[in-house]
Amino acid sequence: MISEMVDRANADPVVRRQAHFVRLAFGLEIGAASWVIEIDRGTVAGVPAGDGAPVPEFTLSADEASWADFARPLPPPGTHDVLALFEGGRLKITGEALPLMRNLAVVKAVLAKLRQKEMA
Amino acid sequence: MTATIEAVTGHYVHLEISGRSYRVYFEQAGEGIPLLCLHTAGADSRQYRAILNDPEILSKYRVIAFDLPWHGRSSPPDGWQNETYQLTTDSYMATILAFKEALGLERPVVMGCSIGGRAVLHLAIRHGKLFRAAIGLESHAGYDPLMHPLIADIGYLNRPDVNGQEAAAATVSGLISPLSPDPERWETLWHYMQGGPGAFPGDLYYYMVDGDLRNGLLAQLDTKICPLFLLTGDYDYSATVERTQEVMRQVPGAQFRLMPGLGHFPMSENPKLFMSYLRPVLDEIAEG
């Protein structure tokens, strides 16, 4: 799931352009699985959290069902966006919020690659 | 390709609002019942472009949309550089009424979205006799957004180490339905990317704080004086269907229309679909 997301992000010139000036590591928790997503000047990488992984500035956490809904080609209302999940109480943001909000567009663009097929 | 010129005309009107001078931009088209349109927080009247170009609506309605001061082509007042913009219930109402008076609009229908959707509730409560009907798009009485501390305390929408244009668009992008077409989605976001510094969070002060109507005032809204129509899209996670229906419970006689497939910006994110929900409402008002 994560490796496909990373591959799709790196294959998309729009995401690469958005990420060109970005250096950011953030956590992504899908149920019990924890990842660190690193964006480094146009390139996206994902590694399991833990020893040797970059220290995330913030972490987005939701259960597997929520991320599965989010990743559907047409997500149901309330699951179609990270902030929709957040406002609906299905996603938690921990760590520093400012780096998330500063990079919100590119973070959303990367996470959208969890979907095999882009939304309309 | 043949060039076309729209029938929409743009003008500036000079207004005195609470003792200060403002130069306010508006667009209009059509003839008939005045339909005064209010844009969302941090955006401007371009959101109503499709309605301003809809021949069927323009055959019955004179559609008018203005940019709030500090938005679009309406300048902030002299001295703006020394103050922090905050939209309040009183300043919003005063602006709308000043504009209505300046244009001599006789009992217009007022339609607003998001903050505009809240404003039509305040207008109907305070000045219902002045309006033929009120249409609230993505209306609700208020709630406690988890986003509010990020906006109010971290201030990410207006600080020098954040690109406010990108941040504003990224903040609202998920409020658009995934079913909305790409060209309209990205034009809606472009409007947000063009907002002046501080305008969007200044509007959100009304949306999230000052304009909160969870205070019992909705009981004073008399739909016999000012009929109220509420239209809400199911992909709006801010003005949710449930929050709109909470208004319904407090306002006897209000009418609700669910708009499946739409988000927080129905008139600009998917005008074709939105118009299919709006036309019957406008017909009902015109026949009433």
Provide the β-strand percentage band of chain B: 15-25%
Q: In terms of per-residue confidence, which ranges of chain B show pLDDT below 50 for 5 or more consecutive residues?
A: none
- The separation of the N and C termini of chain A measures 21 Å
Q: How many DSSP E strands of chain B?
A: 8
Oligomer: heterodimer
Order of strands, main sheet of chain A, comes to 3-2-1-4-5
Keywords:
heterodimer, A: 120 residues, alpha+beta, 36% helix, globular, B: 288 residues, alpha/beta, 8-stranded mixed beta sheet, 10 helices
Explained architecture:
- The complex is a heterodimer of chains A (120) and B (288).
- Chain A is α+β, with helices and mostly antiparallel strands and 120 residues long.
- Helices cover 36% and strands 27% of the residues of chain A.
- Chain A contains 6 helices and 5 strands, in the order ααββββααβαα.
- A 5-stranded mixed beta sheet of chain A has the order 3-2-1-4-5.
- Chain A starts with a helix and ends in a 9-residue tail after the last helix.
- The mean pLDDT of chain A is 95.
- Chain B has 10 helices and 8 strands.
- Chain B starts with 8 loop residues before the first strand and ends with a helix.
- Helix content of chain B is 36%, strand content 18%.
- Chain B is an alpha/beta fold and 288 residues long.
- In chain B, α5 (164-173) runs antiparallel to α6 (182-193).
- Chains A and B meet through α4, α5 and α6 of A and α5 of B.
